[in-house]
ROK family protein (Streptomyces crystallinus), 816 residues
Amino acid sequence: MKSNLAPLAPKADQDTVRRHNLSLVLRAVHDEGEATRAGVAARVRLTRAAVSSLVEQLLEGGFVTESGKTSSGQAGRPGTVLKPARTGVAGVGVEINVDYTTVCVVDLAGTDRVRLTEHLDNRGAPPAEVLARAARLTSRALDSAGQQELRPAGVTLALPGLVAGGTVRQAPNLGWNGVPADTLFARELAKCSEAPPVAVGSENEANLAALAELWFGAPGEARTFLYLSGEIGVGGALVLNGELLRGAHGFAGEIGHVPVDPAGPECRCGARGCLERYAGQSALLSGGGIDEGAGAAGVAELERRARAGDERALTALGTAGRMLGRVLAGAVNLLDPQTVVLGGVYRALAPWLTPPAEAELASRVVSGLWPRGSGRLRPSSPSGDAARGAAALVVEAVLDDPAGWAQA
Amino acid sequence: MKSNLAPLAPKADQDTVRRHNLSLVLRAVHDEGEATRAGVAARVRLTRAAVSSLVEQLLEGGFVTESGKTSSGQAGRPGTVLKPARTGVAGVGVEINVDYTTVCVVDLAGTDRVRLTEHLDNRGAPPAEVLARAARLTSRALDSAGQQELRPAGVTLALPGLVAGGTVRQAPNLGWNGVPADTLFARELAKCSEAPPVAVGSENEANLAALAELWFGAPGEARTFLYLSGEIGVGGALVLNGELLRGAHGFAGEIGHVPVDPAGPECRCGARGCLERYAGQSALLSGGGIDEGAGAAGVAELERRARAGDERALTALGTAGRMLGRVLAGAVNLLDPQTVVLGGVYRALAPWLTPPAEAELASRVVSGLWPRGSGRLRPSSPSGDAARGAAALVVEAVLDDPAGWAQA
């Protein structure tokens, strides 16, 4: 057998160990929501003295706050309660989708503190202009954040396309090809914001929505799931044991371009008969007799009509659900996930999409492994979306190495 | 954000550390093929003294051998060369496929030391009888292994179906449902072999073939790949960063049952239009005008006819290649693997399957990420198959904890 070992990790020096332990302690407080020093020490398996010293650094850095005195009335350390700070470093997420842009600022606890959404068609304008508009929206969000004493540790852009190394290789529904989104956005933000410059990264929107589902979804939910993000495009993401699968080039999850009918209608991606052409937002709206360009209002209208029993709406949803189910059956046979999560516009439309999709899954997944009514095809949590996932990704970076983000 | 931390690892006690280090040293010798104590110490970052003591235990346990004296003529320790033992513990793999059974014994270096194959139709007989025949073949292989002073540490059965917890939940092409293969095989082996009883495990054949590709394929090959195993059924497996993806129930990889045409012919799995019906061995043979039941000889005949330019053979291969490409395009969009490996009967037929499959990939994978001629769709290595992967899985268990397998 040939060697397939990963390279050995470098020897940890003392500073690395201290930074690592600082992260451990901050994560313990973060994950518990509130904790005592003793509780943290038990969880991270460090001595009480070591934890107290690390907590001191986290308090100084503004990452945690303490409240509550011990019952003895002393301002004693062991009994006070530590919480993630509600001020100080924060994460910023900016979702630029086809027909809306959302900016979201979350604090160290992961709480949404600012949220601004602009409904507008981003297809009509050149990428630089779209990014400039998004930067202006972000600048307004940063003002609100500043008033709440939050300062951005970084910005993550959530984009509906293939994103790697800060560049959007292709976002067919935006019409973007090879757009250096990070750089353009940072430049625009510098023009309209007085805040000090921050790092800008970018990531596929479905990946970030899936991470938001993982982080903010109901406790006890599956950690191995396939996430579908229904928008103008149909994005997808795979979370395996709590880790996002990025693939060899960072482009995994493009379920919208799995072929449904090889001879079907042409797709914006260049191929034919992709799932997106049958189950994307535009197909749903036009199938339901609603203007394709009606955006979120159109989706709400489709939902209203379905609820009222409108036949065209129900047929469009039935077809989309069947096509979703067909593609999902293949994906489930390939990946054997615990659950499949329907996000984006699919969340509100799940009551009508789920039954036909479940029927396809029940008849096509091998060995009866997906019986109807299993509850394993479910709508996404209302608390997670790509913008929040994007902001939380920044917070994750802070939690991973708080020493790198301490207040100047 | 809610807590998604894995449970903390138990504190390692001294015995655990020693066993772990023993494994590290054995793996170092195994991965290098041959190594000096000094080389091992540098690689595993332990002191020379610690390594020498661990090597002593491995020599006593019969896991490594040493040869070669230092040039100074001393029987000195530091300069002698350590190698994995060619005698002692070995792994046994038994692939029970639809039209053949193969038993393979590999030593600690991963070398094939015994290999027996019986071509016969396993569909005709009840599972217990098939397993009894396989046990008899295994017993003969164990005799040969014994003559080479190899003793089995365990047996892994490779089976063409959904396997979990020692039971074949479903193997449609064998006609097996809910067969406790481990137990039945162990009982039959005890009847016909005088060797002491060994642990028996089982696993999907495509998973094991993919592991064999990972372990025995050309050095420098991708560690993230999709493996297709073309047999009577079409099996699949996903290796991500050198790890097999098993899925939530251990059933990931069933690419043979991804729907190609939802209204297509019925498949043995109960669904319609599965890939297997278009690109499995039976479809290839009958499409090429050869008796479906002709097995390996039939595949050789198909290859011969294709090479001779026979039109029916070329058409059958062209259709299968296109269908493979279509399903692979969906899988590549979803998973973004570095390569796709064609194993089983597809290996020999790759010259004819690859061009039409590449054409589908080139036109259907998003963003031109799979240009023709990329070489990313390639035949499997001739040195790996499911039986060898099954045997090597046992060797892996020994390498993970040699202390558990020391000579009595």
